[in-house]
Structures are given as structure tokens and as C-alpha cells.
Amino acid sequence: MKKLNKLSLLTFTILASKLLTSCGGVPEETSTVGKESKVFAVGEVLEMVAKENDVTRTLYTKAIVGKGKKQGMKFDEDWRKDDIEAGPLPALFLRGVATSIKKSPVPLGLYLGSDYPVNAANKFIGKQANLFEKIKVDQKPQFFYDEEQKLHTAMFADLAGAGACVSCHNDHKQSPKTDWELGDVMGATTWQYPKDSLTYKETVDVLKSYADGTVDIYKQYLKEIGEFKESDKPEIGKKWPEEGNFLPSAEVFLDSVKKLSSYETMKHLVVSK
Ligand code: HEC
């Protein structure tokens, strides 16, 4: 958990220093549109939201899926089917977030791909496939402008950060690779946005649409549990699977995500500006 807090602190530091710079009357290089000056480069914003995603994804994978499985909870790729009483796998949790963002007015795109995907539809092609080769070597993010889609694009390594990532992919019957190891670059998250710079409000909206997306998919999971007929339903409330057959409520889950991330803090800063 300490590591996660450090990440949020980093986001916070970036935001705070940006704000101080702009309040201190230092002229911004970027153009001023309307009343709000464009202060964030698209790469910076995508980096921030990618970090929020790391925090959320790790929390979901370790505290819900990893610990939940030990309590006998099930997670399945077909979790939405009526006859399957299970929750979403981490990748499908992410897909749920992406779908929710797509429905929002925020033009943010999110995709999880790999060169050895369990689901062939997740295989990187073209420029993203080339850049993924680089990411596998140095694990550094890659930024480029996708001319065809007219979208600013950023790719971030998706690491095997938990034993559950490795064992599930290696054992999966559709997996084209069965020797994943802890710490491997298993894939990358690709983020896209149409503009090259964002105002504070647009930046907050991007972070908020991501957070709203996580709540959205988490609530869908809890709703699915409500419809379980055969399985033992976990008690939903304040406790986590670590303590037994429990799942945090959407509020408790979001609260943890918020504690580990920092968009709320930023919202305050923007409002008091
Ligand atoms: C219990 C099984 C399971 C666990 C745990 C799991 N995955 Fe997956 N993962 C899958 C399945 C199944 C898919 C394909 C989902 C789909 O239909 O798109 C997938 C998709 C992915 C993809 C997209 C490319 C592909 O393989 O289709 C990446 C990258 C990925 N997972 C990485 C991870 C990482 C990193 C972790 C740990 C943080 C993790 N997975 C945990 C089963 C799992």
C-alpha cells in the first residue's frame, strides 16, 4: 500500500507545482482559449490517468480477485452470463471501465493489448505493435500521434504484478504463451485523447470519467452477486475478502481508490483557484 500512496503523491506534486507555476504569474507557453489557459500537455494527463489505473487495477486484482479466490469467490471471463455466478476478471474490469468512459461525454479512449493475448482481439497491430516491442525492453511509456485516427496516443507497460496474473494466463487454454513470470511486461494499456493540451477542467473530467467508470463496473459486479442463485453470496459492506466472505460496498471500494489516488485533491485545488 505504501507504494501506491507514493504514486498518488507524485500525481499530487505534479498538479501542485503546475498550479503554483500558473498562479505565480509565469506566462504560459500554450495559448489561452476562453477564460481558462491550457495548462496540461495531453501526455501528462494520460500519464496521470494511467497511474490512477495502476492503483485501481492493483487494488482490484490483489484485494478482490486474489484474496476473494481464497474465500472461494469465482471470477470468470463469462461473468455476465446468467448461468455463471462469478465476478469480472481484472482485464474485463478494465474493459468495463473503458466501456463506461466511452458512454461518457469525455473523449478518452482506453484499451488493453498484448503480443501474446488470451483473447486474439487484444493483439496489438501496426504502430502500437512496434512500440510495444520497445516497451517490453525498457518498460518506458511511449507517446505518439495516431495520424489515421487523429488521436494523441500513450502506451504504458502492464506488468505481471501479482501471482494471479501469471498463473491464470499460463493455465488459460486459449493462451498462446504459458511461461509468463512475475514482473513480465504482459501487455500495455493504450490511452487516447483528441487534443494536444487540456484545461484544468478537462483534466479533472478525464480523471473523473476514469473513477466513475470503476464505480460503474464495480456496481455491475455487485448487482450480479445479488442475482446469484447457487453460490454463497459474500456479505457486502465495510469488510474486504481478506477478512472472510466479504466484499466492500461500492462506496467503500471507491473510498479506497480515492485514498490511493488524488483527483479529489486536485478538484479542490481547481475550485479554490
Ligand atoms: C483469473 C484469470 C486472470 C487473471 C487473474 C488475470 N488475467 Fe489477464 N486476462 C485473462 C483473460 C481471460 C483475458 C482475456 C479477456 C478478454 O476476453 O479480453 C485477459 C486479458 C489480459 C490482457 C489483454 C491481452 C490478452 O491476453 O487478451 C492483458 C495485458 C492481461 N490480461 C494482463 C493481466 C495482468 C497484468 C494481470 C494481473 C494484474 C492479469 N491479466 C490477471 C485472465 C486473467
SSE topology:
Elements: H1 2-23, E1 32-33, E2 36-37, E3 40-41, H2 42-70, E4 75-76, E5 87-88, H3 90-103, E6 109-113, H4 126-138, E7 142-146, E8 151-159, H5 163-171, E9 185-193, E10 197-198, H6 200-226, E11 235-237, E12 246-248, H7 250-260, H8 263-271
Helix pairs in contact: 1-2, 1-8, 2-6, 3-6, 6-7, 6-8
The chain binds heme C.
Polypeptide structure, described:
- This protein is an alpha+beta fold and 273 residues long.
- The chain has two domains: 1-90 and 194-273, no CATH class; 108-191, no CATH class.
- The protein has helices at residues 2-23, 42-70, 90-103, 126-138, 163-171, 200-226, 250-260, 263-271, and strands at residues 32-33, 36-37, 40-41, 75-76, 87-88, 109-113, 142-146, 151-159, 185-193, 197-198, 235-237, 246-248.
- The strands form five sheets. Strands 6-9-8-7 form a four-stranded antiparallel beta sheet, sandwiched between helices.
- Strand 1 (32-33) and strand 2 (36-37) form a beta hairpin.
- Helix 2 runs parallel beside helix 6 and helix 3 packs across helix 6 (200-226).
- The two termini are 31 Å apart.
- Mean pLDDT is 86; it is low at 1-7 and 20-33.
- The structure holds heme C (HEC).
Question: Quick one: how many beta strands?
Answer: 12
Structural class: alpha+beta
Number of helices: 8
SSE series: HEEEHEEHEHEEHEEHEEHH
Low-confidence stretches: 1-7, 20-33
User: How many domain regions?
Assistant: 2
Helix content range: 40-55%
Strand order of the largest sheet: 6-9-8-7
State the major sheet: 4 strands, antiparallel
What is the approximate shape? globular
Strand content: 15-25%
What do the pLDDT scores average to? 86
Q: End-to-end distance, in Å?
A: 31 Å
Bound molecules: heme C
Radius of gyration, CA atoms, in whole angstroms: 19 Å
